[in-house]
Amino acid sequence: MALPRTHHCQACSDTSAHEPVLHEDLVVGAPLSMEDLTDAQRLDRFALKYAHDGCRVTEVRRVPHDNLSGYAWSVRFTADS
């Protein structure tokens, strides 16, 4: 299964604060080949999918999940509002 399409977050655009906003998404069904990538390569790969309104991916990590492969990817990113 492919990575999610470009992420769109209402909170990024609707907030009026001038500090970065931390978001976290859980991505289920990312390709198993993600495990073969380095941390930097994972950041780059997800950064392309989450790039909008100044968002920047800060962390991608594997987390347990009740799906067929038994895990998902937690993607943390900040949005400058």
TrEMBL record:
Superkingdom to which the source organism belongs: Bacteria
Protein name: Uncharacterized protein
Taxonomic source organism: Streptomyces achmelvichensis
